[in-house]
Amino acid sequence: MKILFPLALLAATAAHTAPIAPAKPAPSASAGSAPGAPAPAQVRFPGVSDAGNAILTKAQTTTDPQIQSLFRQLKTVRDQLTSAVMAPTIDADKVAGILRQQDTLQTQIRTQQTEHWITVLKQLPGEDRGTVLRTLLLSRTRQAAPTAGASPSSQP
User: Fold this and answer.
1) Predicted confidence band at 64 (pLDDT cuts at 50, 70, 90)?
2) Which of 52, 70, 99, 109 has the fewest C-beta atoms under 10 angstroms from its C-beta?
3) What are phi and psi of 91, to 5 degrees?
4) Residue 103 sits in a domain of what CATH number?
């Protein structure tokens, strides 16, 4: 069962320290895709109506320019951090400032992704909201289950 959009949003909004940044912007007709390029395959979400699937597919394939801008800024900050820690002499104040910038951007990204997800959720037909949210909850529970029992102190 492929549930790309909800899982990506869930992972990005649930991960407090490192939101998932797309390696490449998601393909989108409005993003100026190359002429003649094949259209992205529509992902069907099991148990969701055709109208709900259309909304989820549109949300999955449409990039938010504000989020993309924040990800570009985050990449720049991470490049600065890499340069700062690879320098022969580490300037702790400079690294601290960069880390704070990184935290601020990650918070802005999570907030923007959450707002986007809420907007999509409100657009879904009422009967689809429960299906999508329960799927997210179950997938989140399954992802957390293997790591819940593993702790450094439980190893002999």
Assistant:
1) confident
2) 99
3) -95, 105
4) 1.20.120.1490
For residues 105 and 20, what is the distance between their CA atoms, to the nearest angstrom? 13
CA atoms of 100 and 126, how far apart (whole Å): 40
Range of the domain at 99: 49-138
- What are the angstrom distances between the C-alpha of 38 and each of 13, 29, 61, 62? 30, 11, 13, 16
Residue 18 in contact with residue 106, Cβ under 8 Å? yes
Residue 69 has, within 13 A of its CA and on its CB side, a CA count of 5
Alpha helices in 124-155 (DSSP H): 126-148
Return the closest-CA partner of residue 68 out of 7, 111, 109, 102.
Answer: 109
Residue 150 belongs to some domain of the structure: no
- Number of domains into which the chain is organized: 1
Span 85-143, pLDDT tens digits: 999 999 999 999 999 999 999 999 999 988 998 988 999 998 888 888 888 788 777 77
Full-model pTM: 0.59
- 2 closest CA partner among 60, 50, 49, 58: 60
